[in-house]
Amino acid sequence: MISRVRGKIVSRDRESVEILTDCGLCYRVLVAPVFLKELSPNEEVELHTYMYFQNEPSRGFLTLVGFSSPVEREFFELFITVSGIGPKAAIKSFTLPVSVIAKAISEGDQNLLCSMPGIGRQRARQIIARLQDKIAKFVLIKDEGREGAQTEEAPDVFEEALEVLLQLQYRKSEAKAMIEKVKGLGKRFDSVEQVLEEIYRRR
Predict the structure, then answer these.
(1) Is 150 among the domain residues?
(2) Which of 100, 165, 182, 193 could covalently link to 96 via disulfide, CB atoms 3.0 to 4.6 Å apart?
(3) pLDDT tens digits, residue range 18-52?
(4) 1 close to 51: Cβ distance less than 8 angstroms
């Protein structure tokens, strides 16, 4: 499986880029509209990729879908678990940042979901029903800043939550401040998900 592609963008069209790697291989990678506008020819990039087999009437072929972070790829993989939404349709529908889509799902905002290409009223209801209780951490993604950091191995749920916030592109000082605010509540948290949900409620 190809999980990451690094190289120079040699061409771009309305739905994909071609990336020439240092070893001379050139990959065509589908990119969501919201991410594609950030990419320019001759730019050096690293995309985190999702690979699937696409069937057409006269042929079948492997297809790569690219994202600027593994968290965005994770959200995409969750999104396509909704019945009737395949990878190709999903990537075309991502005209909004992941955090905006995740927030709409969390809040049951059918109107916003219906504004995405290919998502009608019934499909929006399916998305909300399937994913509403699974996307708290994706609401916290900082789409405007994609430079992240890593931290040491987490010994407890608060440290694990800090790690997740750093992966979601928060600065360490911001992430620590949010964690400390939740710690100060004196509540018991049994999982990282509970910590992240509390942070989201208090934003």
Answers:
(1) no
(2) 100
(3) 999 998 999 999 999 988 988 988 999 999 999 99
(4) yes
Q: What is the pTM of this model?
A: 0.70
Q: How far apart are CA 79 and CA 50, in angstroms?
A: 13
Domain containing 187: what range? Answer: 157-201
Average pLDDT over residues 181-185: 80
Instruction: Please enumerate in sequence order all residues whose Cβ is within 8 A of that of 178, keeping only pairs 6 or more positions apart, or say none.
Output: 165, 170, 199
One-letter identity of residue 173: S
How far is the CA of 94 from the CAs of 23, 114, 115, 133, 196, in angstroms?
Answer: 31, 12, 10, 20, 24
Half-sphere exposure of 32 (CA within 13 A, CB side): 25
Answer whether 164's CB lies under 8 Å from 178's CB.
Answer: no
Q: For residues 48 and 17, what is the distance between their CA atoms, to the nearest angstrom?
A: 13
Residue 114 structure tokens: 């219906």
CA distance 178 to 203: 9
Structure tokens belonging to residue 86: 């395949």
